Amino acid sequence: PGITVPAEATAVKIDAEGQVQAIVPGQSSPTIVGQLELATFVNPTGLEALGDNLFRETPASGTPTIGTPGSTGFGQILQGFVEGSNVNAVTEISALIIAQRAYEMNSKVISAADDMMSTTAQIAR
Hints:
By secondary structure, the chain is an alpha+beta fold. It has one helix at 89-124, and strands at residues 11-14, 19-23, 31-35, 38-40, 48-51, 54-56, 65-67.
């Protein structure tokens, strides 16, 4: 659902259950302005990637199951946290170097085998 934050709000707070609150000057407690919802899909890999971390439902993904953060089967929302990388750069670079060296060695083996076949063909003539 749409969430409208008042123009005079000085801060916005989102709790772990997805409740959006705005702090408005002159009020003693934050004003609840909306509730975030999460969607899960039977086949998340079937979603169409639109870019910028946006996805669209497709027939392959199935219909969404909508729920609030923190309820069973849905994650929680943590305001102010940045998602960490799920890739270890050192490990990936090491794996890339190993793959490159393996490719080099295989390429040299193929070249050597080709040279031997060429020499054998010349001797047979």
